[in-house]
Amino acid sequence: MTEQSGQSKALDNLLRENRAFPPSDEFAAQANATAPMFDEANADREAFWAKQAERLHWDTKWTQVLDWSGAPFAKWFVGGKLNVAYNCVDRHVEAGHGDQVAIHWEGEPGDTRTITYSDLQTEVCKTANALTALGLRAGDRVAIYLPMIPEAIFSMLACARLGLTHSVVFGGFSAEALRTRIDDAEAKLVITADGQYRRGSAVPLKAAVDEAVTQTPTIEHVLVVRRTGIDVEWAEGRDLWWHETVEPASGEHTPEAFDAEHPLFILYTSGTTGKPKGILHTSGGYLTQTSYTHYNVFDLKADNDVYWCTADIGWVTGHSYIVYGPLSNRATQIVYEGTPNTPHEGRHWEIIQKYKASIYYTAPTLIRTFMKWGDDIPAKFDLSSLRVIGTVGEPINPEAWIWYREHIGAGSAPVVDTWWQTETGAIMVSPLPGVTTLKPGSAIAPLPGVSAKVVDDDGNEVGKGGGGYLVLDQPWPSMLRGIWGDEERYRETYWKRFAKQGFYFAGDGAKYDEDGAIWLLGRVDDVMLVSGHNISTTEVESALVSHPKVAEAAVVGATDPTTGQAVVSFVILRGGADEGSDIAKELRDHVAGEIGPIAKPRQILVVPELPKTRSGKIMRRLLRDVAENRKIGDVTTLADSSVMDLISQGLNTGK
Ligand code: ATP
Ligand code: MG
């Protein structure tokens, strides 16, 4: 067990994981990223970012790289002007790449569309012209409430082109969630679809908009894509069909350059820890960092790669790594509308095989789901085209990392575990393929140009082997520029905890291993205090997932009369795993063996599902309610709210 030193510690460092994978010479020889980038960035951070900004086309060059005089409100590339959509589309066409495929789109029912950069240019221009004709002007807000169809991307880029600020709301959210987001941003237009496909059937989407906009005075129009053909209610004058409004519009449009700090979008965080916050991002710095990280972390070769990020555009990953990063880098990418098990559990692998995808970026939750479904499913497909695979959203358990590398990455593809947040806009801590020695479960180190540290309660950096809080101690180009309409909440949430030092506090716990690599340990709100030890939920979950029978685990601290808090775990077993007579004892002993008796769960509950947000994060606060026999809290941002009923029922019947 870890010794408590005199220095204050946020977290005990319990789990040991020693496997390491250096890059192959072959990969390193062709990698975009190089080790000297770290030295270059350390020597002069601002000069380094200025060089990255040269990746983009600027109509007017900046006069100052960073203005931090109004901290914590940053201004990057002061005085610079650019058009984000021009950078993502037109300039590639002008450089002779109009015929290159931008998007291989796969609909859930099996319909497909191939969209070249020229096609994308035409579609974005038509959309921009149509929005202008509706009276929208730079600075206005537009809500986008669409499934994963190409029109979602056209809409975002049309907004960017016109200087409209988009607010994408996940297509699975309720009318109420949509209403509060429209209201908060005072959007004038909602772009939606009649319906969307979900697990093989067409379900209504516009109906939720109809309900929401009865109470949103700012909405002037609802623009509706016909996706499923299902019946919809129609408000004459307010509602407009996409095919009657956008399609007839001109496919020519001259982009205007906007200030580097012009608002690009508002995106509400996933609400894992509380009420969603409207995170504001601007243009020049955001595009610089999404472009730079996408190029280096995924080793993108625009002429050869086929890239696939499985996120929804309603999540920041969809903004930065489907729309802005990849398109600014002229990627050819796959966009898939549906769920991973429609019509069968091999759908992702089938798509990778079909398009010969070479880069695949997904979430740990999905990897654990694939593990649960069984190894035999990916084994039926040819995944040999994959050369870089990535994850985002939660700490990845070492066992899930190894499974991913073995079964999806052929035992050789670099796995990039990327840590970042809606607030950071782009990847911050991640290995660089071809440069970094990988460790399963570790996001390793801040990228060149980024500065992150693990600190104790007093803001002092902990030493090797120490645990604490992850902070960002230097501003970065794609950092949030505030919370929409709430300056105070911005200061409170991110800058108050380490106000003295001027650090941005991310809300996550982390540790350094003996080599100084960074391991994310989950949210500090989730940390358990057991008999005076601060234990991370992530470490106990990883210990559980390392048992061959466990596919997924969620751990919470529940009030306990003797230990203060006790570890309560919820586990999902792997496909085909036999529960055995005393699975609970088996797993408790396993945890004790892996990390020590202090972390031994008081209770282990086998459940069919876990409560997750739309972006796949486990909502531990709801499980804490179950563990402490409380009424279950707000479930509006759950992907499937019936999961909590399933869990409660199972527990009541003693299953
Ligand atoms: P809210 O802030 O409303 O609770 P959220 O934090 O879930 O919502 P996001 O911005 O989508 O919304 O998630 C960012 C968080 O996801 C990070 O703070 C971290 O906890 C987690 N995360 C993302 N990537 C990783 C990763 N690679 N390793 C560990 N944790 C990660
Ligand atoms: Mg957060």
Short recap of the structure:
With 655 residues, the chain is an alpha/beta fold. The chain is 31% helix and 21% strand. The longest helix is centred in the first third of the chain and has 17 residues, at 117-133.
**Average pLDDT taken over every residue:** 94
Number of domains: 2
> Helix content range of the residues, please?
25-40%
* Overall number of strands: 29
Uncertain segments are 1-9
Strand order of the largest sheet: 5-4-17-16-18-19-20
Span of the ends, CA to CA: 33 Å
Overall form: globular
> What would you call the structural class?
alpha/beta
Number of helices: 20
Radius of gyration: 24 Å
Task: Write out the distinct hetero groups bound to the structure.
Answer: adenosine-5'-triphosphate, magnesium ion
Q: Any idea what the CATH superfamily of the largest domain is called?
A: ANL, N-terminal domain
CATH topology of the largest domain: Rossmann fold
Portion of residues in beta strands equals 15-25%
The description of the largest β-sheet is: 7 strands, mixed
CATH 2nd-level architecture of the largest domain: 3-Layer(aba) Sandwich
Query: CATH first level of the largest domain: which class?
Result: Alpha Beta
